[in-house]
Amino acid sequence: MSERLGVTPAQTVGPYLHIGLPWPDGPYAVPEGTPGACWIRGQIVDGTGAPVVDALVESWQADPDGRFDHPDDPRGARPSTVPGFRGFARTETDGQGWYGLLTVKPGPLPTPEGETEAPHLTLSVFARGLLHRLVTRVYFPDEATANAADPVLRGVDPDRRDTLLASPAPDGYRFDIRLQGEHETVFFAV
């Protein structure tokens, strides 16, 4: 007689992601020296404010024309006009929880409902203690009109929208990610 076995417990993602998935040019969605390139840098902290030193951050974004060289772009896949743009980057955090991604600012995107999403990057965060990736967005402070009209941002509690807004930095933008607690970054169920 066989006994029914219980469900195997879920495993957390990491810390192996931080060790095994980065690659040398992973942080570069565009090559160094690309005109208009900027850094998105930030620190990932846990609910107590302690740096998360073994996280992995992935970005996905449209090019400056708001296009993807991907079959899921409803307007059709089209190579970017920015040489070397790949629309994807991956980097790990350092010993103080800092990450950095070199990219170009994306363009606005049409929605299936006929609206327009403001320029943004989608970030996925993987780290120890997480059963699934966390997905958030980075919006730009110099896009106030587009941000106000963005259907995703309009759906976020007004008191929490600032957690999705990068701030200007000398070489681009700063976007810190707080995994939980007071002023937790908004994460999306995708």
From TrEMBL:
Task: Please state which protein family the record places this protein in.
Answer: Belongs to the intradiol ring-cleavage dioxygenase family.
* Protein name in UniProt: Protocatechuate 3,4-dioxygenase subunit alpha
Q: Which domain of life is it from?
A: Bacteria
Q: Where is the Intradiol ring-cleavage dioxygenases domain?
A: 39-181
- Name the UniProt key words of this record, in alphabetical order: Dioxygenase, Oxidoreductase
Q: Does the keyword Phosphoprotein apply?
A: no
**Organism name:** Micromonospora endophytica
Q: Which SUPFAM superfamilies match?
A: Aromatic compound dioxygenase
**Residue span of region Disordered:** 62-87
NCBIfam families recorded for this chain?
protocat_alph
Q: Does the keyword Oxidoreductase apply?
A: yes
Biased composition (Basic and acidic residues) is annotated at 64-76
The root-end lineage is: Bacteria, Bacillati, Actinomycetota, Actinomycetes, Micromonosporales
GO molecular function terms noted in the UniProt entry: ferric iron binding; protocatechuate 3,4-dioxygenase activity
